[in-house]
Amino acid sequence: MKRLRTANVVSSLIRPPDHRPCSSFPSKHHHRLARQPHRSAHGSAYALGTQWTGALSRPSRGDEAPELTSAELLAGGVQNLVPMELPCTPCDDGGGNAAARCVIGSAGWGHSALIVESNCGAEHAAVANENDDADNNNKASTNYHHSRHTKLLVCGRPHDFQTLMRLRRLPTPLRNLSLSANSPISNGNGYDTSSNHPSMLQKIVSYLAGENQLTIHEEECRKYSFIDKLTEISLPNNQMPALPGQAVTDYLLNLHGRKRYIPHHPQSNNDNNTTLIKSHHATFQNTLATSAGLTAVISNTGHLYTFGLNHRGQCGVGTFSPNVWTPSPVVGLASLRFILDYTAAAQSSASSTSNNNNSAGSHVYSECKVQEYPMVSVALGLQHGIALDCMGQVFTWGKGERGQLGLGKRFMYESLQEVAGVDPDVVMQYKKDNDASISIEEPNQNKTLEYAMQITNFYDPYATLSLEKNEDIYAPLLSSADSTIRLIGAGMNFSMAVTESNLPYIWGKNCVHNNTHHSNGIINNPLQNISKPVLDSTYPRYIPGLPPNVQIIQVACGTHHASMLLEDGSIYAMGVATDQPIPMWNEAVEILPKNIVDVSSLISFSAGFDRTFVVYGDEFGGREVIEIQLWSEEEMRLNGLVRPSWCDWLEEEEEDGRKRKVRSVHRGWMHTVVITEE
User: Fold this and answer.
1) Residues facing residue 117 across a β-bridge
2) Longest C-alpha distance within the chain, in Å?
3) 3-state per-residue secondary structure call for 269-337
4) What is the DSSP string of 424-443?
5) Which of 137-151, 318-332, 540-554 shows the lowest mean pLDDT across its residues?
6) Is the Cβ–Cβ distance between 225 and 160 less than 8 Å?
7) Engineering a disulfide at 568: which of 1, 29, 506, 594 sits with its beta carbon 3.0 to 4.6 angstroms away?
8) Coiled-coil intervals in this record (predicted)?
9) Of residues 34 and 67, which shows the higher confidence score?
10) What is the pLDDT of residues 86-123, one digit of tens each?
């Protein structure tokens, strides 16, 4: 039976002739999936898209794999991929160089990031001064999983977004001319920024593309703004990127928290026995994330680092700036109680006798440059980030005007009452007339933060209207233990989390149904100056619609949708439909029936822009790859499973006589990265 080759058109979203659900549109081995453990083998990275962004790591332009259109796929075209050029890494035992093996990857808006490990498997020797303040971090990098010598590689435009969009609109000849003026030249020992001065014509073209003077003249910007091949980005203190599945040990716990940073505090004395502190999350989850000119990575010591654009504080380093050029720690990654104790301890140990302002303002977050616990997962939106530590605490930072930080407690439109010109007395009277219990409300906290803050409120006091049953649905009341966070994700302007009690929450831009909206434009709420079907939510909102007593095991977010993989193999999603801009945020809908994906053989679950990808194993040791989208019609959702066309090309490719199997898929704005293994 011939496979479908396209994942882009509605006309191809049909079941095979036998009308049975299939595990990818039908493969040459149409069979019942067998249960098998995940195997840890690593390999290469492939990509599709165009190279002018540099995200394909193909310095020789023209050697690329543009994404085929729907018409080309329907005509029988097969999407090809190009291998990303991975650098060789020197073996520490003096055995020469060996090709790096790609472990995980991420595709941003105009750049790619990979975590690779040396094929040598050599021990990484960190050189550090034992008297240095970073000594513990260096020792951890040396001793913790010392046989996993990992590196962070980046290519493309990791510090750029606006210029990227302007360059895309330029005609190809003008775009190439602008790029040639701003591309650093390799001199064999890195990048040489003292040559390749742009001509007057190149300056004019760069101006049209939006390139500012810094891009032409400043050394740092020239060095990092455009990287046409995968280049290592070193982490501070000789740390290495962590790998998903690595253990969060007691040794890592002791690198953070009270015992290290507040040793004389009463609560710290109770922590002398490390067995008293038990990590809620035993392993790392997602340790690498990319977005629009933004990258985040968790080190093998549990420290979270970011670099890239920082106009909206999206790096979370405690300050606003145009760029953060090198990996820098996110600040404020601790509970308020820890931050206050840490600040008090620091002030009491200071030798200065000057009168300082010791009030507990927002500055205590930006000044807390240590973490309470190791981070285990990170996700990035367009200009904000979300992170999860090993104790189940969740933190957000960056742009928050649309509620994507989840630090508010009311609807977005209520914070606009002054902007809308509504008299406060009228507002108060309206509240009293409709519900006396809300005569006084807490203000919104839709702020942009240059530091991280913990989200502590996962109690949703409002009902969600079920569109199918036309009834209100309330979130269960959660205890402190039940509200511990297990999974996190981030879309373009929203965030999500799943609690230990298996309850999904979402917050951010346009992710709550407006119960007062009518299609005829009638406005029933005087607090609203515009009637629209969805509103912003500035605090975590419960998502109904999932089947009861079925565990959520993975979550992944595209730009405008969020997907959840359940333990029975089904996938539920909410967001904006692919085929037409219909908001479907109110409750989760099924986009893949159960018993298609055998989660015991799950390899990866990811989402990028409008698509969700699932990779799992079959009984013959091969791989099945599923691509699905959120469609507006139920029939399309139930029949929307497709197999990416590039799978046909990849299966025919061999390297050194060995077949390549897909490990994970990462879709960016103008390119897609496919991680394979042997």
Assistant:
1) 101, 150
2) 82
3) HCCCCHHHCCCCCCECCCCEEEECCEEEEEECCCCEEEEEECCCCCCCCCCCCCEEEEEEECCCCCCHH
4) HHHHHHHHHHH-GGGSS-PP
5) 137-151
6) yes
7) 594
8) none
9) 67
10) 887 665 555 555 667 899 999 999 999 999 987 654 33
